[in-house]
Batch of 2 targets.
Target 1
Amino acid sequence: MSLAPIQPTAITGFALCNALGGDVRAVRDALFDGRSGLGPSPIALPFDTAVGVVATPLPELPASLSGWTTRTAQIAALLLAQLDAPLRAARSRWRPDRIAVVLGTSTAGADVTEQAYKHFLDHGRLPDGYDLWRHHTYGAILHAVRELAGASGPGWVHSTACTSSAKPLASAQRLLAADLADAVIVGGIDTLCAMTLRGFHSLGALDHAVCRPFAADRGGINIGEGGAFLLLERSGEPVAILESVGESSDAYHISAPHPDGLGAALAMTRALELAGVAPADVDHVNAHGTGTRLNDASESKAITSIFGAEIPVASTKGYTGHTLGAAGATEAAIGIISMLEGWIPASIGAEPTDPSIEANIAHTRLDRPVKRVMSNSFAFGGNNVSVLLRSA
Amino acid sequence: MNTVALIGAGLYLPDAPSLAAWTSGSATPAAPTGAIIEPRSRRRASPITKALADAFAEALAASGADPALVATVFGSAVGEVSTMVGLLDTMWCQGELSPMAFATSVHNAAAGVVSISTANRAYTTSIGADFDTPAAALIEALGLVATSGGVAIVTCGDEAVPERLVDPADGWELAAASVAIAAVDAAPMAPRLTIRPRRDSDELAASLCDSAAIGRNPCAGLVDLALATSKQAPLVVALDRGRGTGWVAELSAPGSK
């Protein structure tokens, strides 16, 4: 049987929005300067924690989509506006039905629904205008993005918790390899909601202050909101290349990583094997690096088992917070910035580093050429994704 | 590369807890068991997770594939919505959320517990696309089979949305269905399954499920496809029951193009 080969894929544009700012430039500047975007929660909570908030004013949706207005859809509109030029070029190259949309989110419209539900409890009815199909489901954001982007090809939303927006990159490569699309808009969006914050608190996973991935006294994660989109095309003028995506399952526990990072190592190994790239040819690992004791320890073991203890490793969650369903795409985009500009962001908050962490954590920004980046995302359900990127 | 071999199917409906039971015509109502799920996770699993697991297990058994190696694509329009509503009830009444309820409220809860229970370290995902969920899950699986070979099992289902969130007249019943697919040359004697946009010339097969409440389920299209495997091909099944963007599944005999 002949398999359709996964080919290196042109990334012809990317867009970012999170606690560091509302576009790629703002996010880049904060990462370059080592400035965290984390701060107090705008949502009242019965405990202390820091969060990452999108403070950029969000655009109104066009009248035809006004019924779909949610914070998630508005962040999507902001991201698509950043992608306007490459999207116009893509639409000139490919038919609309050959442009697919594959997104990821963990929260979908949970922020709207939790407020609607509170209204129900207080008043005995849902608020006027609330519509599960337009405000909550995965199809809601999918519809908005398709309409805004002029894309009518296949579309769906992965929701695999914290790997949700890394998986679309793999789906896109398969859609292109199987000739089911010529271009794919990929990415993800998550927004802050009380249920997520309280849920992670119930797990004992939230840091009560600003998170410090890989630090000796790290106390857990901070939740952030945000989004990132990337445009992948069969051909085009690339800003970077998606070489491969490795995916695996831990088959271990619903909410805890395998202690030795076996599933994480398997995802990284599969990415390298798919691309035919040796570990020594990767310059940097953008770690999942959440700041929980279990994740950082197991991920460090997985990284060093493959790359050794020299490769520079950084977590950017100390800047943005853990954007959950948007993290995979966000950190792939940050990897592209590293390659375009030739620097690796400092893993802020990591000093003093946990002595049991063997990986080489970048305590300061490292200015050096970066040709290849591995970006990791790991999730509830033991779901693991490693994205391998190369400079164009 | 939108044609594959269909090598197994599975089903959970409240009145027919397996495809075998439905086909035999002697089905009796039963709750989903989640028998494939390891006991500790099964005790905590929601009805939708168990229903998805039951449909998956039947398709897996029919396919003869190695449980530890199959690629799995789960789909659901609203996921663990009852668990979410339970969390909201607790939260807005100033209660502490249950960490286990939170951890199993994720959309990929079924995907996670099935991978744990089958010691499967291969590909798994969980997707949603409203009424296009069955078509989207099948297209994702087409890509997996085309690029990696092997067997992919597509399992979709939805539980009833609590009446507080939707008009009861629009509600539906719990249902899940599953199909196993492989490359055509890996199973040359199996029926062919083609996923494509609907054409004006298509004569859609009538649904074999006469329950209106099942028919409103966003994943009813995969139920229809699983039931259609009991009939002689060729036939064309609407994967969205006319409520999505128009994808269909075309079943044809082995050897046909």
Target 2
Amino acid sequence: MKVALVDSGGTNIGSVRYALSRLGAESSLTSNADEILSADRVILPGVGAAAAGMARLHEMGLVDVLREVQQPLLGVCLGMQLLFERSDEDGGVDCLGLLPGQVIAIPASASARVPHMGWNTLQHCKSDPLTAGIVDTDRAYFVHSYAAPVSDVTLLSTQHGQPWSAAVRSGQRWGAQFHPEKSADVGSRILRNFLAEDLS
Amino acid sequence: MSLARRIIPCLDVRDGRVVKGTKFRDHIDMGDIVELAARYRDEGADELVFYDITASPEGRSVDIDWVRRVAQEIDIPFCVAGGISSEESARAVLHAGADKISINTPATQRPELISELAAAFGVQCVVVGVDSLRDEDGTWRIRQMTGNPDQTTALETTTVEWVKRVQELGAGEIVLNCMGSDGVRQGYDVEQLAAVRAVCGVPLIASGGAGEMDHFIDVFAEADVDGALAASVFHSGAVPIPELKDRLNSEGVVVRRAEKEQEV
């Protein structure tokens, strides 16, 4: 299986690559359109801010390429947020528009500190091959200040002040707000599901 | 259900090996970094902090080879502290696979560094370590260069002022190391941590003083910290992490269990 890891400039690229390698999957770090479009799986990692993330995708000519991808695509953390139509971060940024909806700032409070940082629970909203084997008491590692509200595309939600999308899907596009590459056995399970031949 | 309180073993690193000491002195070799990190991961640690204890006093940056080795093997988040004093050195550590970088002495010398790192990598990557000690007038003030006791310097800045300032500059998390209680295992400095909690809107991690399980219960219950960091009690086996988490869970503290969680 060919896995293309899109070189989006995020600092978690190395960690995602190591996680895939622990599962026996070799990935190529690439910004080449042909390589991305011919891969069996495409992963868009990302850590940082939305404006810088989109600017980099524009610079490398990858915006249209990512919109053309027909194979399963997984956005991780900022990579997931960029799949939506728009993010409120950095004064408002147009994103890839592959998933309906908008990413907004998490309101900070004494019971929901921002950044949302640490291990939080995952609750199923819809069953899906990506999240098979995950139970409602499982926890994954989150680090973010912006988030997508729960909507029709939400597969898993998490609670931080209010419910937020933890995993999403529309068609062949999936996203994880948490970091599967840093979420121990729960994260490995998600990545293994994404790499499974019968994912659809 | 909500965010779990974190249990964070801290591994002091010198010349690529894990060492331990008390009050920052007299270091003993504890073993290979990756082996110890894997052990903690298996025991259910939520996160690891690697503190390069010699980098900052010696004025050099972190050797990133071991950072990469840890990232290849370990599937929980980890933070690297010590010797990061520029955007360039931070980038090297983050690209090698660290999730966060913690800055301490360099932030006291040049506070704008916090903003530069937050702009470059996002606030979620930027942890500010604060070494704090109560002075004779009863006020907590910060210290710098604590990696080498001969160079440790007391500053005029109060701990509370500094914690407010670093948040404005872009700190995404604060580790408060209470030097007065560090290494003596008499419990976290709950009074100081609660005072800092009152002005700290970002995640706050307690450091210094853990000696037994009750100390963890106290610090979560009384200072409302997001995580508790400790070194020697975990290294020695005095507080085994699985039992600590069982105990915290039974006391009503929300924690992540390495196996499937059992609800109370």
